[in-house]
Amino acid sequence: MKTLYIIRHAKSSWEFDVVDHQRPLNDRGLVDAKLIGEKLKTLVESIDLVLCSDAERAKMTAHIILENLDVPDNISRLEPDLYDFNGHQVVETIKNCDDKISTLMIFGHNHALTSIANLYGSISIDNLPTAGVVAIQFDINSWKELNVGKTLLTIFPKELR
User: Fold this and answer.
1) Which of 17, 35, 50, 159 is surrounded by the fewest CB atoms within 10 Å?
2) What's the gap between Cα 49 and its chain centre?
């Protein structure tokens, strides 16, 4: 069994004149990431590996959420291939994970994450909103066998406000 948590970065700011990769979270994004982190703390038992896009908004989201989950630093790493909007690189990153990893959490971007949630989950969602979470469980022994699994949960910030 493998479990995948897909988390889209929280709402980012367009206030600053920076390249897309460097956009930080806005105030709503900071609040939503904290709400999601607090909710996940009640639901997530353990995580074996956390992979995060190296975009600033994804790193900030991961930092806030992971603070709530008391995840050790040594299981988290930046993964530039998660700065992907169509999903091909994200899927390859997941499939290349070590099979010792049972529970994987990724932080990334749309449209990739909505596509992956719909391609591999058992329910369809229109759009994974900013700071939204989808957890999918797979009856597989190897990440290379990734196929349709069972959507365990969806959490969207507007449900928590």
Assistant:
1) 17
2) 12
Pairing of strands 103-108, 2-8: parallel
- C-alpha 115/C-alpha 112 separation (Å) is 5
CB 132 within 8 A of CB 25: no
Identify the helix (H) or strand (E) that includes residue 90: helix 88-95
pTM: 0.96
Q: Write the DSSP symbol of residue 12.
A: B
Structural tokens at position 25: 């979270």
pLDDT at 20 over 90: no
Q: What DSSP character marks residue 69? A: H
Those residues with Cβ within 8 angstroms of residue 145's Cβ, 6 or more apart along the chain or in another chain: 138
